[in-house]
Design brief:
Number of domains: 1
Helix content: 40-55%
Largest sheet: 9 strands, mixed
Oligomer: single chain
Order of helices and strands: HHEHHEEHEHEHHHHHEHHEEHEH
Radius of gyration: 19 Å
Amino acid sequence: MFTVYEPFNLADFEVQRAQIKPLVSSLRFANVLIDTIFYDVNAFHRAMKIDGLDVTIHAPRDSCAQFARALQEVDLGALANPEGAIVIVDASATPHIQCFFDVSEFLGAKDGVSRIDSISVSGVGSSALGSAALAWNVSRAMGKPVAGIVPGYGLADVVQQALGGFFGFGLFTYWMKQPLQNTLAVLVPGAASVGRSLVATVPGTKTAATEAPVFQHGSGSSDVLHYILKHTDHIRTLVGHSKGALVIENAIAEQKEETLRRLKILTFACSIREQPAVGEYEQYLGIIDALGLLGSAGNRPEHAVPTWHSTNSEMPLTMHVATLAHP
């Protein structure tokens, strides 16, 4: 009697999206907790409670409502959603917060990108809470609405940040993000799609042969910002904290000179290489910020300040973005 063995199907052994998403979400939850240290979360939350939160949602899915409730109630479970978003934060007028989960819709909506001329980017592992708190501080400083990019958080981020020593940082491994994502997109496409919903809405986004998204400018946030800058003509100010500064550095690469000339770039806790064509740089680096010094890779800031890596105004020796970003 002969036994016939079926040939191996490699797809049977692939780590699937349903298996990896709970892990990535739980690790994103750790980033939410870290954000309470490194961003002005307590001040932001108090302002929301005092004023009441008026939230407008732009996307046809349940996660949008969860996102809105998360910002209102500081629901850490919903804030741990790894998929990414764009939030418009206005510290001086309602609706205080608008959420977009689709880049094309953000660009096309009457109350989308046309409302803003400034974009902030928090550290790549940051949660919705940290991203909104940073955008809130920038909005307070500038007296107008600011769009904040909530970074997607996927398997490539987990690997990269684990190699960096702990979650949320590991700046010296930032350059690994794109090759990691591209490799995972080929080997485990189901898992590689976790945390990439926002970047997948970028028109013409690049994918591997497996149809899993891959990066073109170093990270999903850089791809999103690069596309926004390329398809709008009124963005004037970019603000980045920590890895968010590196997101900006990658996003402005290969932009037209006329786009670069109109930009003012502010960075906090990480200095980037300055392109001569950019209109203006204002970079702030703490003299007691080991993480920022490491991530800056020798790039010199315009301002050395007596601070460490945090922007939480309620802690000592931190960067007060709402003051430093004032025009």
